[in-house]
């Protein structure tokens, strides 16, 4: 059973019955701001798990379920970043029915507000807490110091402590597959990419997408428009419209609303969505989507806490771990394209293929990765250039 806690400036207002949620995707032009720095850097993220044993979860009383808290940066809605994490929470509750209870708090701003919410969860007996936005990193670390018997897991960050681990997804793997689809479906040889912030996570996604396109269409080009926001439907729509007007007949996005898909539907071009299957927002435009799925991770982590085996880890999970998945293909995607994507996906899962194996040149012709070499994770998480096929210069 889950309890919903709606965040308001202190005092908090608890609501365990699910009330109506605000509209998740306002019309373009509405004044809604999500967050500005959820995942501003991934430079120090390591792919290998760091296994520091620390049974931080306090022992539950016999017969009592483990109380688990989730902190969300936006409304859950019906698609997007927070929606995917909440799907994972529900899967965890179902898998561990009777063993756990969870409370989630929506629309918590990063910074001091987040610290108060995280602290309240710890004070109210939640012995396992997931904080799901980059900007929650320092507040999580600070609260963890005051609650050494509570275990914390922070999404997309890099700082750890004796009772704080991190977790993230290899989004770039799905981006490469999406690029294959775009490369085969584009007639103009131009794809448009609506991007949030020029940080490694976003840049590696753009580059993986471009490499996927060029693997099947050597003439393919990717145009990028930066909106400097993770969630701003108005800006996202304007960016997508601009890209379409510049000749992009396939658009994708590293932002959180459905605006790019809606723009593609309105302009009768194709779209590859991100985070969630957004086909209902573009029934004709939507080809597939790169999705991230957290249920198995949340279930595994909660079970470890129940068993007294929770430990600090930093997993960077992808297709192999079933975290990155492609949404179903639309009928517009030919079977041979679907088959190629599925084969490449299987090769990534088996470790036979990596989207960033050389030769790789940047878009100014400089060799970045030699033939036969593969970018290591540390270098990948510092990526600060565009590969061949991406137009323009990366903002600094």
UniProtKB/TrEMBL annotation:
Keyword Cell division: no
Cellular component terms per the entry's GO annotation: plasma membrane
Protein keywords: Lipoprotein, Signal
Keyword Lipoprotein included in the entry's annotation: yes
Gene3D superfamilies reported in the protein's UniProt record: 3.40.50.2300
InterPro entries the UniProt entry points to: ABC-Purine-Binding, Peripla_BP_I, PnrA-like
Positions of the ABC transporter substrate-binding protein PnrA-like domain: 67-346
Listed name of the protein: Putative ABC-type transport system, periplasmic component/surface lipoprotein
Organism: uncultured bacterium fosmid pJB190D12_contig II
């Amino acid at each position: 059973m889950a309890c919903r806690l709606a965040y308001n400036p202190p005092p908090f207002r608890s609501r365990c019955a699910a009330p109506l949620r605000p509209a998740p995707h306002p019309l373009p032009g509405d004044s809604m701001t999500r967050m500005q720095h959820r995942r501003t850097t991934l430079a120090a993220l390591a792919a290998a798990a760091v296994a520091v044993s620390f049974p931080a979860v306090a022992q539950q009383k016999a017969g009592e379920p483990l109380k688990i808290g989730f902190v969300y940066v936006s409304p859950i809605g019906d698609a997007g970043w927070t929606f995917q994490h909440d799907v994972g929470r529900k899967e965890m509750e179902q898998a561990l029915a009777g063993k756990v209870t969870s409370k989630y708090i929506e629309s918590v701003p990063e910074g001091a507000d987040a610290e108060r919410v995280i602290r309240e969860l710890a004070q109210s007996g939640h012995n396992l807490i997931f904080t799901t936005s980059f900007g929650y990193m320092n507040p999580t670390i600070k609260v963890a110091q005051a609650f050494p018997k509570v275990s914390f897991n922070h999404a997309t960050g890099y700082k750890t402590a004796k009772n704080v681990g991190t977790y993230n997804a290899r989004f770039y793997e799905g981006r490469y597959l999406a690029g294959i689809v775009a490369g085969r479906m584009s007639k103009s040889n131009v794809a448009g990419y609506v991007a949030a912030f020029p940080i490694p996570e976003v840049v590696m996604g753009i580059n993986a997408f471009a490499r996927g396109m060029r693997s099947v269409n050597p003439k393919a080009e990717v145009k990028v428009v930066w909106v400097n926001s993770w969630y701003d439907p108005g800006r996202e729509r304007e960016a997508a419209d601009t890209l379409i007007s510049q000749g992009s007949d396939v658009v994708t996005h590293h932002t959180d609303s459905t605006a790019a898909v809606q723009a593609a539907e309105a302009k009768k071009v194709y779209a590859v969505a991100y985070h969630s299957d957004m086909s209902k927002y573009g029934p004709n435009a939507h080809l597939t989507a790169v999705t991230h799925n957290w249920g198995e991770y949340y279930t595994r982590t909660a079970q470890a806490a129940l068993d007294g085996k929770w430990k600090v880890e930093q997993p960077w999970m992808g297709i192999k771990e079933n975290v990155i998945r492609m949404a179903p293909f639309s009928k517009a995607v030919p079977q041979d394209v679907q088959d190629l994507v599925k084969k490449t996906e299987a090769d990534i899962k088996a470790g036979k293929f990596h989207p960033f194996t050389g030769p790789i040149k940047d878009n100014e012709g400089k060799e970045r990765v030699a033939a036969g070499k593969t970018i290591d994770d540390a270098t990948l998480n510092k990526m600060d250039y565009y590969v061949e096929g991406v137009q323009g210069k990366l903002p600094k």
